[in-house]
Amino acid sequence: MTAKKRIKVIMAKPGLDGHDRGAKLLARVFAEAGMEVVYTGLRQTPEMIVEAALQEDADVVGLSSLSGVHNYFFPRVVELLKEKGLDNVLVVGGGIIPDEDVPGLKDAGVAAIFGPGTRTEDIVKFVEENIPNT
Amino acid sequence: MENLVPEVLQGSIRAMAKLITLVENEDSRSLEFLGAIYPHTGKAHVLGITGSPGTGKSTLTDKITAVLRQRNQTVGIIAVDPSSPFTGGALLGDRIRMQRAFGDPDVFIRSMATRGNLGGLARSTTDVIKIMDAFGKDWIIVETVGVGQDEVDIVKAADTTVVVLAPGLGDTIQSMKAGVMEIADLYVINKADRSGADALVTEVRIRVEQDAQIKARPWQTPVLKTVAVEDQGTESLVEAVDHHRKFLEESGKLKKVRWEKTRQETLSLLKEEISRNVLEKILGNGRFDDLIDDIIANRKDPYTSVKEIVETLFSDE
């Protein structure tokens, strides 16, 4: 009678931009795919996001940024996760991210970047296929 | 998998978070771990916050936590939100309102989805309370899902139950009904700066004064006003909780309540274990499905069949 393990996602918006329609949409898309999604809201510091991932024992951290701060915030989240021993957390990002920034973010440990126009089915599929088995 | 219990007892946040996940998932080792945790429980005061959706439970939880932190008390928060009955997924949004508590190493917040459990809590919420208790949290605040009228499981989990109401959600009749309106150790009328708040306070006070069952209790149930977003009234709310805690301890009621809770919990564990074992036996051989065919074809009825199954079960032994 083991309850099914559910994928736990932290959806967060690092930095100061106040546009969270994308993040909210993705939170709902993940929930509709059967995941348990903790939405942390706007204006999160990397420390707050990582603290949430730690306490919630998250499998996935989804980051959304529209204000151009991704090159600092996304790698910083990955770095802090590692510092806390959360090496197994899948970090994905989305929002307005210029193509030329994507390779650098991936090198920094962000597993995927989903820009505008990405099919939500593809995002769910990517997450389901790439979460580490713990 | 390594044994997480010693790490939890030594204060590892990571181990506590992982142990909670195991218990939520009803992992095969969770009972063993909970057994090892159990001797270290019973120190925390468990505060339940319940009420309809949108009355301000999360915001109040945040403010109460701030007051407790000023007193250097450590706090564990369990915030329950509903799972979808269709997909099993959940959007857990209570953390948004708990920004102040966020980033304080002595506040641990865990969001839980109900996973189909009715009653306002997740199935494993009481076990998660025990884990936080053993970890050493002084206070554990359990915020239920937004409840309607009949989700009263929180009383079984909490030492002190706060029912949060807000003006504008119904007329006098609502405050006269059974269920959630009966379980409070404390009523809080939140959003008290809105019109209708004083009328609601009066209604609830009348309920408290007229309800023979509530009146018969030795504890006099206070009705307080708060404006959680403005941080008004939260200090007095925590003081009222203190009073209740003192009352529980001094009247000897805490011992009684905990005895009753332990009995309930042990009984429901026993029931689960019995039904798991017995059902495995009954459902294992496939004859049960034949029986269902017989019932559908009107050759048998479910009432007599169930009686027969139970009789054969015990005649075997």
Give the helix tally of chain A: 5
Q: Give the topology string of chain A: H per helix, E per strand.
A: EHEHEHEHEH
Q: How many structural units, i.e. domains of chain A? A: 1
Query: What are the segments of chain A in which pLDDT stays under 50 over at least 5 consecutive residues?
Result: none
Task: Describe what this molecule looks like in 3D.
In chain A, helix 2 packs across helix 3. Chain A has one domain (8-130): 3-Layer(aba) Sandwich (Rossmann fold), CATH 3.40.50.280. Chain A has five helices and five strands. Chain A is of the alpha/beta class and 134 residues long. Helices cover 40% and strands 18% of the residues of chain A. Chain A has a five-stranded parallel β-sheet with strand order 2-1-3-4-5, sandwiched between helices. Chain A is globular and about 40 Å long. Chain B is an alpha/beta fold and 317 residues long. Chain B has three domains: 1-40; 43-251, Rossmann fold, CATH 3.40.50; 265-316, no CATH class. Chain B has helices spanning 5-9, 13-24, 30-37, 57-70, 125-135, 154-157, 172-176, 197-210, 212-215, 234-250, 253-284, 287-296, 302-316; strands at 45-51, 75-81, 90-92, 107-113, 139-143, 160-165, 186-189, 223-225. Chain B has a seven-stranded parallel β-sheet, sandwiched between helices. In chain B, helix 7 (172-176) links the parallel strand 6 and strand 7. The mean pLDDT of chain B is 89. The chains are: A alpha/beta (134), B alpha/beta (317). At the A-B interface, helix 1, strand 2 and helix 2 of A face helix 2, strand 3 and strand 4 of B.
